[in-house]
TrEMBL record:
Keywords annotated in UniProt: Acyltransferase, Transferase
Protein name according to UniProt: Aminoglycoside 6'-N-acetyltransferase
One Pfam family linked to the record: Acetyltransf_3
Claim: Manganese is one of the keywords in the record: no
SUPFAM superfamilies: Acyl-CoA N-acyltransferases (Nat)
EC numbers, comma separated: 2.3.1.82
Length: 185
């Protein structure tokens, strides 16, 4: 499955993605608010890319899309499809050299279009550490609403951290598109 946007392709992981995957997943700045450990060895990255490449986007559970720019892996965006197939959770990460250029926003917007218009989902949720203000602003910019805060909910890097909760409903998504807002792209 390929999802294309103006500059990006969201695709299956494939052989050849291992080095880029290991590089950005090993970057402490990219991993700062994520649950994975750093560094990620090339051996571990090879195994992860193989698992990701074999994943099925139509199955319930997590499916990781590779975010590609000009054929090169620059990040990933995951979808956790709920067993009722009407809800999903998303998460994303982009390599440091590609941050601040709108690629994450473009990837999230393209994925939302797929989830709401192609798959007819009712709700998409996301969460992030409240200190990750860049991701929180991105989620709000594309139409998510802050729905809550789970205090000291996640044990991450030897500390309890809060989880900021976001949600986007299909009617709100469609209204945003119809109004010509950020979601209309």
């Amino acid at each position: 499955m390929l999802l294309t946007s103006r500059r990006l392709v969201l695709r299956h992981f494939r052989p050849g993605d291992e080095e880029a995957f290991a590089a950005y997943r090993s970057d402490p700045e990219v991993a700062r608010y994520q649950a994975w450990d750093t560094p990620l060895s090339l051996r571990e990255a090879t195994a992860a890319v193989a698992r990701h490449a074999a994943a099925d986007p139509d199955r319930v559970g997590w499916f990781p899309y590779a975010i590609a720019l000009d054929g090169h892996l620059i990040g990933d965006i995951g979808v956790n499809l709920h067993e009722n197939r009407k809800q999903a959770e998303i998460g994303f990460s982009v390599a440091t050299p590609f941050q601040g250029r709108g690629y994450a926003t473009e990837a999230v917007e393209r994925l939302l279009r797929h989830l709401f218009l192609d798959l007819d989902l009712h709700r998409v949720s996301a969460e992030c550490d409240p200190r990750n203000t860049t991701s929180a602003r991105l989620l709000e910019r594309v139409g998510f609403r802050r729905e809550g805060l789970r205090r000291e909910n996640t044990w991450l890097r030897d500390e309890w951290v809060d989880d900021l909760l976001f949600g986007l409903l299909a009617p709100d998504y469609r209204r945003g598109r119809a109004a010509g807002g950020a979601l209309s792209r």
